[in-house]
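Posted in: Protein Modeling Q&A

I'm a second-year student putting together a small comparison for a lab meeting, and my supervisor asked me to include a predicted structure for Intracellular septation protein A. I've never done this before, so apologies if this is the wrong subforum. The sequence is pasted below exactly as I got it from our records. If anyone can share the C-alpha cell output, I'd also love a short note on what stands out.
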Amino acid sequence: MIPSVRYTLAFFINVVLPTAAYRIALPHVGLLGALLASSVPLLAWIGIDLLRYRHFDALSALVLASIAMSLLVFASGAADALRAAREPLVSGIVGLSFLLSLPLNRPLVFYLARSTLSRERQGREAEFDVMWLSRPALARSIRVMTAVWGIGLVCENVARLAVVLSFDSDDAHRVSTYVGYAVYVALTVWTIVYRHMVIKRQ
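Accepted answer (user: helix_wrangler)
Welcome! Here is the predicted structure, written out as C-alpha cells:
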C-alpha cells in the first residue's frame, strides 16, 4: 500500500472511526457503552494488521490501552468529578503514560516512530533499532518528544477540566473542544519544527 494512503487510513481508523462510534453510541448506551463501541474499530484494525501484514500497530494499541484505562476510571466510584467533563479524558491518560515511560530503556514515542517506519519499507524497523543504539542524539530527541507530548497532553486535559468546571454546560463543551484543538495543533507544529532541527543538526 502507498505510504500516504496507509497513513490516511490509519488516521481514519485511529481517530475518526473511534470518535464517530463514541458519539453515535453515547445517547443510546451511555458513557461506558460508548467507550466500548469506540474500541471496536481499533480491535478490527489491529487484527487485520496482524493477519494480513504481520505488523503490530503501536498507535492503535496505545489508543486502545488509553480507552481501557478510561473504562477503569469511569467504572470506579471515584470518577464523579471527571464524569462532569462529558468526554473521556483519554488524552490525559495517554500523556501520563508518555511521562511514565520516560525512565524506561525505550519510551513510548520510540515504538510509535518504529511502527511508522515499518510501514514505509520492510526492514526499516531493524534499521531504526540500530540507529537507536548507535546515535545518542536520536535517543535524546525521542525522549524530548515523549516528555513534551506527555506534558502537553496532561496540561490540555487539566485546562479542559477547568473549563468544564467554570462555564455553563453548552459553552464549556465548545470552549473545551477549542482548547483541545489548539493544544494538538501546537504540539504538531512543534514536532515538525523540532524534527527538522534535529535532522539539520545531524
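A couple of things worth pointing out for your meeting: The mean pLDDT is 76. Residues 84-202 form one domain.
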